[in-house]
Specification:
With 157 residues, the chain is mainly alpha-helical. 33% of the residues lie in helices and 0% in strands. It contains five helices and no strands.
Length: 157
């Protein structure tokens, strides 16, 4: 999951916990999310005592979910989709993942079919994840991919 030298989870999502955190389109492990978009107070977040995991923000359940996947290929594929969604939530939608509505999900489906602005979201294939030119997309997704990418099982946080 996390690359060598990258922090793994949770509290590192919010401001002030790591000097390696960045804003903008960066890999999940380096993402700095302002506390108001971290999901700590997401509109769909259940009280912690009702949660199946001790998720304090939107980053925690992503890593818990990824840790349940035994195959590295599956983890990488699911991480890519979760990363794209979380980046879109914070940067494009200006919402916490745990505050998304059905309308937001439909907007995301349209976005991943043609991520814009292209300079921000689309890069070359083969660029290492932690290189400055890395982007979450290598171009618009093929017609069937947006439906597959948005078919991730959703459970209350």
């Amino acid at each position: 999951m996390p690359a060598p030298g990258a922090e793994a989870a949770g509290s590192a999502l919010v401001a002030g916990t790591s000097t390696r955190r960045e804003q903008g389109v960066v890999p999940l492990e380096r993402l700095h999310v302002p506390s108001d978009l971290s999901g700590e107070r997401g509109t769909l977040r259940a009280p912690l005592e009702r949660c199946a995991i001790a998720a304090r923000n939107d980053y925690d359940p992503i890593y818990t979910w990824l840790s349940t996947k035994s195959s590295e290929l599956t983890q990488a594929s699911y991480r890519r989709e979760a990363e794209r969604l979380l980046l879109w939530c914070v940067l494009q939608c200006k919402k916490a993942l745990s505050s998304l509505t059905l309308d937001d999900a439909l907007a995301y489906r349209d976005f991943i079919a043609d991520p814009q602005p292209a300079a921000q979201w689309i890069g070359s294939k083969g660029v290492p994840r932690f290189a400055p030119l890395w982007r979450p997309f290598a171009g618009p997704l093929k017609a069937a991919v947006p439906e597959t990418a948005t078919r991730v099982p959703v459970r209350p946080l």
